């Protein structure tokens, strides 16, 4: 499930936005990640959910310093590798639960430092809310794009100080995080590449989500690979084709790939929407995209 949200490149740097953003912040609601899958997606499909071990990895919670305290995140990195390239992993609307942690471990097995920040930490814990509508209205709707961009920047800064090679920086995200994956390259042009899994491309503007990827094509300089399902009921194929047209007009190196028979969340191996063939092909496309773009 996706949702409207976006932030373009900061016209003023984030520091200038702090006074207004701090009015919305209520301290950190989420201070630890715990374990398991999001409550709203229970029961999960144990027979298809991928479980990646931590052999040869350093994996677990970290605390990322941000302007108003410490944000919890999940980090996985090869234990013996120095200066690993960095991939930011942005969650669905359900936050950093077991599926997102496993994605980090899968990336670490490929040689990356993968960091999944809990970007909803100030606004609620979607992992513990059983109703999707409640997650959308009480957590997602109040999470500002500007704050998300700053928290991603803070995660990059943490990686740089803790053995990550942020000159080789990428981002990937799913659903809500797929939209954020399109936004962050407009905010951080030093990014090498992005891979957006079924991220919303258009929607209504709001105070928290003033722009969407289709509004920002000219500002998205780093190449982004968008992976979409032809049967996604939340992201119209018209939006995907409109994005394709705008990217071409802009001379962008970004690309879009559609799996005709796949629904939304086709990579979510713990849910009925999982489509093994599309998910595995998308994973290989992602790794190839990162490699060819210097990550």
Write up what this structure looks like.
The chain is an alpha/beta fold and 295 residues long. The chain has 7 helices and 8 strands. The protein has helices at residues 18-24, 98-109, 132-138, 145-161, 176-187, 237-249, 276-292, and strands spanning 57-66, 69-78, 84-90, 113-117, 164-174, 193-197, 224-229, 255-259. β1 and β2 form a beta hairpin.
Q: What are the defining features of this structure?
A:
29% helix, disordered N terminus, alpha/beta, 295 residues, Rossmann fold
N- to C-terminal distance = 28 Å
The CATH superfamily bears the name: Alpha/Beta hydrolase fold, catalytic domain
- Helical content (DSSP H or I, runs of 4+): 25-40%
CATH architecture term: 3-Layer(aba) Sandwich
Secondary structure elements and pairings:
Blueprint: H1 18-24, E1 57-66, E2 69-78, E3 84-90, H2 98-109, E4 113-117, H3 132-138, H4 145-161, E5 164-174, H5 176-187, E6 193-197, E7 224-229, H6 237-249, E8 255-259, H7 276-292
Parallel strand pairs: 3-4, 3-5, 5-6, 6-7, 7-8
Antiparallel strand pairs: 1-2, 2-4
Helix pairs in contact: 4-5
Give a nutshell description of this structure.
This protein has helices at residues 18-24, 98-109, 132-138, 145-161, 176-187, 237-249, 276-292, and strands at 57-66, 69-78, 84-90, 113-117, 164-174, 193-197, 224-229, 255-259. The protein is an alpha/beta fold and 295 residues long. The chain has a single domain, classed as 3-Layer(aba) Sandwich (Rossmann fold), CATH 3.40.50.1820.
């Amino acid at each position: 499930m996706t949702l409207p949200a976006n932030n373009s490149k900061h016209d003023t740097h984030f520091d200038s936005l702090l006074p207004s953003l701090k009015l919305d912040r209520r301290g950190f609601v989420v201070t630890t990640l715990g374990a398991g899958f999001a409550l709203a997606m229970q029961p999960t499909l144990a027979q298809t959910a991928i479980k990646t071990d931590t052999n040869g990895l350093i994996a677990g919670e970290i605390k990322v310093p941000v302007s108003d305290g410490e944000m919890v995140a999940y980090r996985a990195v090869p234990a013996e590798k120095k200066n690993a390239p960095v991939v930011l992993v942005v969650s669905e609307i359900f936050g950093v639960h077991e599926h997102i942690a496993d994605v980090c471990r899968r990336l670490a097995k490929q040689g990356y430092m993968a960091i999944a920040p809990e970007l909803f930490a100030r606004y609620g814990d979607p992992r513990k809310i059983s109703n999707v509508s409640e997650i959308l209205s009480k957590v997602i709707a109040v999470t500002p794009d500007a704050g998300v961009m700053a928290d991603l920047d803070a995660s990059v800064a943490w990686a740089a100080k803790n053995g990550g090679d942020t000159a080789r920086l990428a981002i990937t995200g799913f659903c809500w995080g797929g939209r954020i994956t399109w936004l962050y390259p407009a905010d951080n042009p030093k990014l090498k590449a992005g891979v957006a899994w079924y991220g919303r491309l258009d929607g209504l503007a709001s105070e928290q989500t003033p722009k969407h990827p289709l509004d920002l094509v000219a500002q998205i300089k780093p190449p982004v690979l968008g992976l979409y399902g032809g049967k996604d009921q939340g992201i119209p194929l018209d939006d995907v084709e409109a994005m394709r047209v705008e990217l071409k007009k802009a001379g962008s190196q970004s690309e879009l790939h559609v799996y005709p028979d796949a629904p939304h969340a086709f990579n979510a191996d713990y849910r009925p929407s999982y489509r093994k063939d599309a998910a595995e092909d998308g994973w290989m496309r992602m790794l190839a995209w990162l490699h060819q773009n210097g990550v």
